[in-house]
UniProtKB/TrEMBL annotation:
Compositional bias segments (type: Polar residues): 26-38
Protein name as it appears in the record: Alpha/beta fold hydrolase
Region (Disordered): 26-59
Pfam families: Abhydrolase_1 (PF00561)
Amino acid sequence: MATSRLLRSTAAVFAATALLISGCSAQNSATDTSTPPDRTNGAKDENTAPDSSVPALQPLPAAIPADLRPYYDQKLSWRDCGVSGFECATMKAPLDYAAPSASTDLKLAVARKKATGPGSRLGSLMVNPGGPGGSAIDYLQQYAPQPAAVRARYDMVAMDPRGVARSEPVECLSNQQMDSYTQTDQTPDTPAEVNKLTTAYRDFAQGCESHSGKLLPHVSTVEAARDMDVLRGVLGDKKLTYVGASYGTFLGATYAGLYPSRSGRLVLDGAMNPALNSRTTSLDQTAGFNTAFTSFAADCVKKSDCPLGTKSADDAGRQLSALFKKLDAHPAATGESRPLTESLATTGVIAAMYDQKAWPVLREYLAQAEKGNGRGLLTLSDSYYERSPDGAYAN
């Protein structure tokens, strides 16, 4: 199972903890758990409540400015990706669209799989999985098989957004620092723990500024959408055809707002409300995790070997709360230097909420954790954070 870290905010993850362990009732199965959109130019302060006064995104001029024309006229040099059927290329984009300069250009990674029925080809179909921060290339190559009828008529195209994966990734912490960060208690019980968590957040932000300070002011939804338009032009498509999921729907809606005359068929799967601020979106996401966990718990208690008991979903939530509390006091052994802390266990549970296919694995790993073996939940947590066995983290 791979989540591709489609939820990036640690704070949002642990805001969900209180509901995950409360046993609140809900009816629906696993839901979309995407993270809030980043701020765009002209947006209201992210801590204000959303309302009908949020201004609409203003379209950019239809004519391509002369100083951006070289980016639209560039030719991509396609090469083998190492993945069957895919080609890869690198596209240049301006770091700052307001002041483009070749000396500061970004190199953005692009991949495509050509239409299987070239005689009936309609153009390119661009995809984005959301996040923000998910690799569109990984998503296309590994997790997003499209119907044969679509693949026959469209070149399938993905571009890792600026600041992500292969496209000038934002760097914040070393691998060792990330290990420490992910183990930090996200539900502090004492002033000392509050101070430790506050310090961890501050160090993370300072690390991003230290390693990627020049890039950070130019990693936004608006700029990612503008990069998409450059790629559309480079590929020779008059209009953008696009499939976006989760936060990718916000990216698609932003594109449509900026380039209404160049927006073609846009499929927005699980559309986000672009008027919501990050706090409201995080609360909605928390509700989604709660719904997903309640569905898991309701299914689990029907099985005689459910590690959270067989009484009710509410009682299963209380059992999970007790497990987390035990791990907070006494982390479980994992067979390596990192024990399973409450923080890592919570992330492991959340990672399994993205897909019902992960539920049997989660039941097994919860049973192991109850017996003092934290290896399984640590594995789930590592998959969420994209930590490889050698200790390296993906962007």
